[in-house]
Design brief:
This protein is of the alpha/beta class. The chain has two domains: about 260 residues, NAD(P)-binding Rossmann-like Domain (Rossmann fold); about 120 residues, Oxidized Rhodanese, domain 1 (3-Layer(aba) Sandwich). The protein is elongated, with a radius of gyration of 28 Å. The strands form two sheets. It has an eight-stranded mixed sheet, with helices on both faces. A five-stranded parallel sheet has the order 9-13-12-10-11. Bound molecules: zinc ion. The site of zinc ion has 9 residues, from helix 8.
């Protein structure tokens, strides 16, 4: 796409379009040529949710010639708080059907292409290759990474928007001229920060702000008017009502855009919500299992000083540094591999780290339990660890 060339080949506007887009045509920076470029342009909207709603409406209204819409979901009542392209009459209908009807009502000359599918590794190349500009309106990290990687591979600009609670982000990732999404975020965030895992809320008007800005960037990219947000990230704080722009640079070691196109392999991004490594057990479940006399070993990995306040009855004390030292020196700590182990610390952080190390050392992840929130949330009685050492308890049960 080169906005300044091929002017002679640009489509003409019919009399209805000349009337409809009159407010664009009288903008000195815009004019007839920019409007013709919009008509010649094509956009793929991935996701018709909160972000896709305003961008679909404004891009249809602005006179983009061809718009592809991708979504496999149906309209639900909980969507209507923010997904303003859909209405009550369309509850239960495909989002693509709902959005297409609204967009054609706004602009009957629009060429609209419905893709009633999930955006997946199998159709990513085919879908993105058909359009000039891609709008990322997804609500989950695996799809967002797939959109990014495919855009980098095919050399397409990716208009990115993200919203969470009261905050929004916007950028244009075009790896030919600046960073890609993975330059900034090489891997997905920890699960507790991933909105699709935490089901975090969002102020309904927030995606309206960010989605409208995405539409603005699309129009700039298609027409060549203005300066697109390449190499810059807009951060919007809805509570303060502040917009901050930060410079974002290409990462020379980016796992995707540092590669030649033919070496970029699309991959699934796996986010295991709620199950990092090993298993977790709540305090009440652990109490039940102990009361039932289940065969399990409770290992308190806190430091000896922390044991003074007491620990779970029957627990053996083996501080985290001691386990790590044993892993390095002997390849394994003095803990059985053939029994269920419940790792305990004060908050659940250190024990979680130890579980990762034990799995790496060959322990069965299915037999390793992390006490959720650690001793801080333990509601049961505590007992002195005293001089009990794991060796004394090995023969227990
Ligand atoms: Zn990159």
């Amino acid at each position: 796409m080169n906005a300044s060339s091929h002017t002679a080949l640009l489509p003409t506007l019919n009399s209805s379009e000349l009337k409809r887009f009159g407010r664009h045509l009288i903008l000195p920076e815009f004019g007839l040529a920019a409007q013709q470029r919009l008509k010649a342009g094509s956009v793929l909207l991935i996701g018709l949710g909160g972000l896709g709603s305003p961008s679909s409406l404004y891009l249809a209204a602005a006179g983009v010639g061809r718009i592809g819409i991708v979504d496999a979901d149906v309209v639900e009542e909980t969507n209507l708080q923010r997904q303003i392209v859909h209405g009550h009459a369309m509850l239960g209908h495909m989002k693509t059907e709902s959005a297409a009807a609204r967009m054609l009502d706004i602009n009957p000359d629009l060429q609209i292409e419905r893709h009633d599918v999930r955006f997946t590794i199998d159709n990513a190349i085919d879908l993105i290759s058909q359009y000039d500009v891609i709008v990322d309106g997804t609500d989950n990290f695996p799809t967002r990474y797939l959109v990014n990687d495919t855009c980098v591979k095919l050399g397409k600009p990716n208009v990115y928007g993200g919203v969470l609670r009261f905050d929004g982000q916007l950028s244009v990732f075009d790896a030919r001229h600046g960073p890609c999404y993975r330059c900034l975020f090489p891997e997905p965030p920890p699960m507790e920060f991933a909105p699709n895992c935490a089901e975090a809320g969002v102020l309904g008007v927030l995606p309206g702000v960010i989605g409208s800005l995405q539409a603005t960037e699309v129009i700039k990219l298609l027409t060549g008017v203005g300066t697109p947000m390449i190499g810059r990230m807009l951060v919007y704080d809805g509570l303060d009502l502040s917009f901050t722009t930060i410079e974002v640079a290409k990462a020379t070691d980016c796992p995707i855009c540092s590669l030649a196109s033919e070496n970029i392999k699309l991959q699934e991004t796996v986010m295991a919500c709620g199950a990092p490594v090993g298993r977790s057990i709540s305090a009440s479940d652990l109490q039940s299992r102990l009361a039932a006399g289940d065969d399990l070993v409770v290992v308190d990995v806190r430091n000896p000083g922390e044991w003074l306040a007491g620990t779970i009855s029957g627990a053996i004390g083996l501080p985290k540094p001691q386990i790590e030292q044993a892993l390095i020196q002997a390849g394994a700590p003095p803990l059985p591999k053939d029994r269920d182990l419940v790792l305990v610390c004060q908050s659940g952080m250190r024990s979680s780290a130890i579980i990762k190390s034990l799995v790496a050392a060959g322990y069965d992840a299915g037999r390793l339990y992390n006490l959720e929130l650690g001793m801080a949330a333990w509601p049961g009685e505590v007992h002195p660890l005293g001089d009990k050492h794991w060796l004394l308890h090995k023969a227990g049960h």
